[in-house]
Design a protein that fits this description.
The structure is a homodimer of 143-residue chains. Chain A has helices at 15-25, 84-93, and strands spanning 3-12, 28-35, 40-46, 55-60, 76-81, 107-111, 117-122. The first copy, chain A, has 143 residues and is an alpha/beta fold. The first copy, chain A, starts with a strand and ends in a 21-residue tail after the last strand.
Chain lengths: 143, 143
Amino acid sequence: MKIRYLHTMIRVKDLDRSIAFWKLLGLEETRRTESEKGRFTLVFMAPPGQPECPIELTWNWDGDEGLPADSRHFGHLAYDVENIYDMCAHLMRNGVTINRPPRDGRMAFVRSPDNQSVELLQWGGGSLPPAEPWLSMPNTGHW
Amino acid sequence: MKIRYLHTMIRVKDLDRSIAFWKLLGLEETRRTESEKGRFTLVFMAPPGQPECPIELTWNWDGDEGLPADSRHFGHLAYDVENIYDMCAHLMRNGVTINRPPRDGRMAFVRSPDNQSVELLQWGGGSLPPAEPWLSMPNTGHW
């Protein structure tokens, strides 16, 4: 039987704040559905050129029990980025904590506003030469 | 800055059992990494023809705290399937509970062994004519 990947859905508390976060990473909104009857909004966001790999932000207008929680059974969303140092600097300038700084020039972790863990990897499996301030930056919390 | 989707990672308790579940859905193993040093195994599984949209099963050999949890901040993984009734029947025959049966011929939800919510949708946004046993099958638990 054929099977095809559609999206990874994540629940959000504050839709605007969440969209802003994913835009910081470079994702674009590709599709949106609003349901007056169901009192929810779905926003699909994907990397440019990858409309087939979206996340689906689900916002329940009347709130959503259990957000943000910190269970580890989800894991994370992972993205390749062109320059991991520039991305982390960009995120920090916009108030995002780099929970696991890219000390190795290769890998970083941040959290979305709803506590989803997001892994950032240097493009194509490469790594940048070690550099400050990342090299001596400690971890913050967990991810 | 360029950004590219890589995978959705989920943590698993029993690697063989989890691989068996995702194979039931039709996913194929595309890549595997074992780390003696880190004491973990990563197994990438994707729908046939979609190697760019894998899930990454992360198995920590010494266990993983907090599995299976039921927090709602993750959401679910979604897949189109060729025939939603046949898929649900196939899953049931293999002991999987259909938490939300496809009463509408269009949508069903199941849980992975690690409690990740999985949405199944009839291929291409279509729906099949309503049919038993689905039509009168109640929900089980939540998803």
